């Protein structure tokens, strides 16, 4: 066995950044972050280890044998195995932290651990940080004068927990009113509540995706791993601008703006919380944890941290992560002691939403070379595999949100989302099959891609002249018009053909807006691939993330040069992976730790520091042949 990689974490724990685990009899050799359990490392890589408790150490079924490497005997190991078995290398997989390279023999599966499918088709072993234990305690006597809190702690001797003053204030009354029949609620290593009776069947958490435009809340049942309710709404900060730069600028110009923006973020999260708990028939105090994924600006504003340094060079965050938060710090009305986890950010413009997305995609655990693109106003890009990942942010601008497009609109009823051009007509897909009133981002990309395909838009992005269109079908030629001294192509005549007053059209300026956006993104991934010394053809999968990426046509993305020219099956719509990553952190404590570890594993590349960026950007403006 080779030695574990020498790079160590920055927290001073001494755990190596990566260790190698070799599993038998599958003969699978994997690298995992140092400090994760063997149980979780196996589940990440598709190896099922017997368990019924999901890795909490209570069922003692996750028996494995260490055949190479040293693993100390834990307190639970000594209860689960005989001395001879311990000498032979038998251990509980959920109690082995990977501190060095190990060979692990996994017995055949007898029972199947609880798991949920989240992220990009990933199986996550249920191991939430919130644990409930039903306790039937003995009453104190003159011969047993242990403190109330010690009595509770002793009944949970397999957990090492601490109790805060909020719990201690009411503990004595709760225990005596409940006649010593209670349920302890533990989050990580903290006793956050003691409840009367047996409430173990009810424990919930909320995963938030705090987007600049849209905010999503997922209420999850921690016992089953299933979603109970999901709701979304527009971020109430919209009046302060559509993008993060506008909101940062607002705080710079008005000293009261930060407080107002924070309050609006809290209102948004609180309203969504009220909606999901009502829809799920769950009491707010039954929600014991919240996890939030958001970009660096949205996160700092929600926490009341001045975002101004994010908006000016050298673009510095106040912190890349935030510990010790409560749900109340985010204005969320759930259990008053519920902890809050905020995904850490890689950089000022590669935020916690991207960290969550990379976790959900399993980019750091896959042998394949994959390209991750979260398409939006600020486009975040990552490329790599389990050996190395590099990331960056590209200033795409508002084109993909259709905010800067003359007939642009949000993805709402009446928005053109699909465009197909034939020799005789233009076929449109419209949201809710309504009368077209504008086009959203996916419709914009489709329209440009189709015009390139049929030759009405040349490689430089210029709509052809009437003379150049003379040999084209009449049905298409008549759609080439002039609107406000601009060349345009009409997608839909709202009135009589030829009347552009109410028409939905694509203008020459709109094409330029899209070209600038796609060139910024293409420059970003091209420079990252060069950083890895990899040709675009070697990319084995492209993940288009975010709400926009879910609706973007792979063929259109390739045709305009937004993504590398690859076979269409390699282009995958990954959906809202930021929200999926937040759900994973709710359902699995180890996945949450893995998300935090990404900060040390991913290399951030600052494009604005590249002297060749502008030249490379200009090269990417043209549409590929």
Description:
The structure is a single chain. This protein is an alpha/beta fold and about 625 residues long. The chain has 5 domains: about 20-115, Ubiquitin-like (UB roll); about 130-195, Ubiquitin-like (UB roll) (Roll); about 205-340, Nucleotidyltransferase, domain 5 (2-Layer Sandwich), CATH 3.30.420; about 365-400 and about 515-620, ATPase, nucleotide binding domain (Nucleotidyltransferase, domain 5), CATH 3.30.420; about 400-510, no CATH class. The protein is about 30% helix and about 25% strand. A 6-stranded mixed β-sheet has the order 14-13-12-15-17-16, sandwiched between helices. It has a 6-stranded mixed β-sheet with strand order 28-27-18-19-20-29, with helices on both faces. The longest helix is centred in the C-terminal third of the chain and has 24 residues, at about 510-530. The two termini are about 50 Å apart. Residues about 1-15 have low confidence and may be disordered.
């Amino acid at each position: 066995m080779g030695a574990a990689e020498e790079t160590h974490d920055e927290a001073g724990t001494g755990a190596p950044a990566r260790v190698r685990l070799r599993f038998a009899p599958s003969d699978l050799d994997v690298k995992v972050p140092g400090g994760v359990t063997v149980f979780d490392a196996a589940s990440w890589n598709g190896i099922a280890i017997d368990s019924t408790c999901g890795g909490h150490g209570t069922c003692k079924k996750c028996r494995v044998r260490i055949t190479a490497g040293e693993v100390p005997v834990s307190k639970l190991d000594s209860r689960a195995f005989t001395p001879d078995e311990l000498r032979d290398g038998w251990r509980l997989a959920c109690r082995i932290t990977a501190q060095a390279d190990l060979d692990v023999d996994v017995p055949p599966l007898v029972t199947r651990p609880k798991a949920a499918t989240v992220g990009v088709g990933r199986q996550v072993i249920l191991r939430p940080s919130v644990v409930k234990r039903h306790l039937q305690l003995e009453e104190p006597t003159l011969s047993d004068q242990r403190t109330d809190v010690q009595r509770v702690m002793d009944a949970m001797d397999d957990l090492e927990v601490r109790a805060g003053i909020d719990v201690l204030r009411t503990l004595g009354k709760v225990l005596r009113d409940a006649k010593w029949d209670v349920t302890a609620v533990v989050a990580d290593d903290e006793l956050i509540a003691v409840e009367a009776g047996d409430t173990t069947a009810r424990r919930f958490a909320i995963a938030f995706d705090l987007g600049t435009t849209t905010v999503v809340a997922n209420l999850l049942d921690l016992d089953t791993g299933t979603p109970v309710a999901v709701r979304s709404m527009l971020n109430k900060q919209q009046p302060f601008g559509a993008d993060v730069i506008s909101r940062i600028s607002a705080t710079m110009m008005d000293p009261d703006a930060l407080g107002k923006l924070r309050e609006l973020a809290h209102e948004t999260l609180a309203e969504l919380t009220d909606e999901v708990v009502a829809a799920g028939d769950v009491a707010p105090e039954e929600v014991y944890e919240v996890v939030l994924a958001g970009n660096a600006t949205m996160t700092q504003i929600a926490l009341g941290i001045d975002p101004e340094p994010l908006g000016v060079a050298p673009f510095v965050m106040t912190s890349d992560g935030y510990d010790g938060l409560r749900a109340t710090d985010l204005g969320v009305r759930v259990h008053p002691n519920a902890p809050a986890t905020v995904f850490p950010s890689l950089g000022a413009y590669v935020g916690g939403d991207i960290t969550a997305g990379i976790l959900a995609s399993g980019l750091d655990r896959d042998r394949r070379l994959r390209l991750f693109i979260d398409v939006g106003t600020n486009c975040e890009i990552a490329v790599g595999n389990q050996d190395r990942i590099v990331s960056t942010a590209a200033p795409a601008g508002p084109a993909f949100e259709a905010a800067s497009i003359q007939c642009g609109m949000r993805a709402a009823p009446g928005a053109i989302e699909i465009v197909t051009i034939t020799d005789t007509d233009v076929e449109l897909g419209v949201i809710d099959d309504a009368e077209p009133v504008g086009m959203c981002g996916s419709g914009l990309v489709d329209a440009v891609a189709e015009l390139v395909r049929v030759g009405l838009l040349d490689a430089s992005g210029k709509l052809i002249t009437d003379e150049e269109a003379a040999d084209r079908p009449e049905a298409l030629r008549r759609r080439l018009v002039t609107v406000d001294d601009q060349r345009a192509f009409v997608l839909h005549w709202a009135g009589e053909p030829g009347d552009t007053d109410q028409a939905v059209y694509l203008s020459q300026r709109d094409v330029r807006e899209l070209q600038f956006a796609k060139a910024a993104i293409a420059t970003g991934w091209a420079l990252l691939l060069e950083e890895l010394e990899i040709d675009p053809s070697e990319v084995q999968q492209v993940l288009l993330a975010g709400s926009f990426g879910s609706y973007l046509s792979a063929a259109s993305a390739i045709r305009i040069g937004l993504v590398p020219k690859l076979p269409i099956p390699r282009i995958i719509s990954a959906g809202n992976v930021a929200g999926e990553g937040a759900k994973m952190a709710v359902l699995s404590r180890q996945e949450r730790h893995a998300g935090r570890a990404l900060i040390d594993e991913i290399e951030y590349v600052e494009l604005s520091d590249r002297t060749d960026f502008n030249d490379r950007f200009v090269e990417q403006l043209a549409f590929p042949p």
